[in-house]
UniProtKB/TrEMBL annotation, chain A:
Domain F-box: 32-86
Gene3D superfamilies listed in its UniProt record: 1.20.1280.50, Ribonuclease Inhibitor
Coiled-coil parts of chain: none
Protein name per Swiss-Prot or TrEMBL: F-box domain-containing protein
Automatic annotation (TrEMBL), chain B:
SKP1 component dimerisation domain span: 102-148
One of the Pfam families matching this protein, by short name: Skp1_POZ
Cell division found in the keyword field: no
Gene Ontology CC, one term: cytoplasm
Pathway noted in the entry: Protein modification; protein ubiquitination
Domain SKP1 component POZ per the UniProt entry, residue ranges: 1-59
GO biological process: jasmonic acid mediated signaling pathway; protein ubiquitination; SCF-dependent proteasomal ubiquitin-dependent protein catabolic process
Subunit structure: Part of a SCF (SKP1-cullin-F-box) protein ligase complex.
Protein's recorded name: SKP1-like protein
């Protein structure tokens, strides 16, 4: 069955002046006829929205479907069910990449199966460079193994087609150069990067609009000078290598939306310049010093809490121009402990 | 108002703001080719009614975010794709012809959601695909990539 034959036939029908005669026929068409009439490109579009494994399995449906999946342009290689059988996952991915005829990949997502015995380093490098060669726009790498760093392969660091990147357990080679010209959105999960790394990333993607860092540590200075970067999310501070009391300083005069989410432990985020903020969502919570494992013995925690109170007061001052503010329970509790009269806090008291 | 005519000769009046979500009709209007009735020779009235329902609901979609109607739209979309395979493919073909990007995405996603994790047998039954491969050919294809056909997530039901 040649699908092109059907497309051609369909197109002829469009121009058929006797079309009205065909009405009854059209109404009685079966599902089988309908699918025959659907151009390959539309079936490929549907296959591209499936987990890639399902798309591959479609090759056995019938002769027409045999090679359809080879043209898919989204890849979702989900390894979640392969943790006992990593070799099969590797075979699946290699099979997919060998047979793919796609010249422009829209989305390339790898969910690595959790298996502490298997190192994916060389696979990742090979798979990612496949996607880079095919001008990938969106890359997602999920890894459940927090003990293994997935270094950004060199090929992706200068991938000019890249628009979004979502990479977990990320490590960045000190020597690598980052150059993402059309890059819009970056999400890094479980990441330890220092001040130089974050500065390198920011200067390497001048068009960046959204930056999201989850389970982060390392850097203590986040200076965003680009006026394109409008949205910053910091989600959970993750204590990587011992405790460092130094606060994280945020200088972002063009930033419009700011989010602090989840557990920040003892990390103090100091807002130095966020004068363009329109909205802020602060649902973070911090831990009392007496509850931090590994902290020095302390007599009391009054001073510690006083420091956070000052920090929160400072947030409200810095955010006074924002039109939308959402605060979480921890921040509200800190507010209610503030004794000095302050109109904003009175408002919160009334609400409760 | 713009007049559309289905292939079974029924005419429908649609607001211009709604109908220009179709890139094809938008181009026709811009080129001044939409002065009278626009004939749509490969869309029947039943499908066209569905498409117009979608276009009318998604009018001024950009404003939905501001007015908090996003959830309402999402609910509408969910209800909208609640249709049989025949009808879904008709809407996909119509959306493709009219070049309505969002409607294409919505319907293709619905098709993919229904097929996700389904066994080969289930997909054949759902889409009424006649298997024209011989048993030998089928086995050969499976042997080429056996791990694509096994796994705990595979669902053999047809609903």
């Amino acid at each position: 069955m040649d699908s092109r034959h059907y497309i051609k036939k369909w197109r002829c029908n469009v121009r058929d002046p006797m079309l009205t005669k065909r009405v009854g026929e059209v109404e009685e068409e079966t599902l089988d006829d309908r699918i025959s009439r659907i151009p390959d490109a539309l079936l490929v579009q549907i296959l591209s929205l499936l987990p890639t494994k399902d798309a591959v399995a479609s090759c056995v449906l019938s002769k027409r479907w045999r090679y359809l999946w080879n043209s898919i342009y989204n890849f979702h290689l989900a390894g979640n069910s392969y943790f006992n059988n990593v070799e099969n996952f590797v075979s699946l991915v290699n099979h997919v990449l060998t047979h793919s005829t796609c010249s422009k990949i829209k989305k390339f997502q790898l969910d690595l199966p959790y298996n502490p015995k298997y190192k994916f380093d060389s696979n990742i490098e090979q798979w990612i460079s496949f996607s880079v060669e095919r001008k990938v726009e969106n890359v997602v790498l999920c890894s459940c193994d927090e003990d293994v760093d997935c270094e950004l392969p060199l090929s992706i660091c200068t991938c000019s087609s890249l628009i979004t990147l979502d990479w977990s357990c990320c490590a960045i080679d000190k020597e690598s150069v980052i150059e993402w010209k059309s890059f819009m959105s970056l999400k890094l999960d479980y990441i330890f990067i220092d001040n130089d790394d974050i500065a390198k990333i920011l200067s390497g993607c001048p068009a960046l609009e959204t930056l999201e860092l989850c389970a982060f540590d390392g850097f203590r200075r986040l200076e965003i000078t680009s006026s394109n970067l409008k949205r910053l999310t910091l989600d959970r501070y993750w204590w990587f290598y011992g405790r460092a009391d130094e606060p994280l300083v945020i200088i972002a005069p063009h930033l419009q939306h700011l989010e602090f989410l989840g557990d920040f432990e003892y990390l103090k985020c100091r807002l130095v310049n966020v004068s363009s903020l329109v909205s802020a969502r602060l649902t973070l919570n911090c831990t009392c010093v007496t509850e931090i494992a590994g902290a020095d013995e302390v007599d009391g925690c009054a001073d510690y809490h006083q420091d956070f109170r000052k920090l929160v007061l400072d947030y409200f001052q810095k955010l006074s121009n924002a039109t939308e503010l959402t605060i979480g329970r921890w921040l509200a509790e800190v507010c209610f402990h503030v004794k000095r009269p302050y109109s904003l806090f009175d408002f919160f008291s009334d609400e409760s | 108002m713009v007049k559309l005519k289905s292939n079974d000769d029924k005419e429908f009046e649609v607001e211009e703001a709604a109908v220009i979500q179709s890139e094809m009709i938008k181009n026709m209007i811009e080129d001044g080719c939409a002065t009278s009735v626009i004939p749509l020779p490969n869309i029947d009235s039943k499908t066209l009614i569905k498409v117009i329902e979608y276009l009318n609901k998604h009018i001024n979609m950009g404003k939905a975010a501001e007015t908090g109607e996003e959830d309402d739209l999402k609910e509408f979309d969910e209800q909208f794709v609640n249709m049989g395979w025949e009808e879904l493919f008709d809407v996909i073909m119509a959306a493709n012809y009219l070049n309505i990007h969002e409607l294409m995405e919505l319907c293709c996603q619905s098709a993919a959601d229904r097929l996700k994790n389904k066994s080969v047998r289930a997909v054949r039954e759902m889409l009424k695909i006649t298997n024209d491969l011989t048993e030998e050919e089928e086995q050969e294809i499976i042997n080429d990539a056996p791990w694509a056909f096994e796994g705990p997530e595979i669902d053999d039901t047809v609903n």
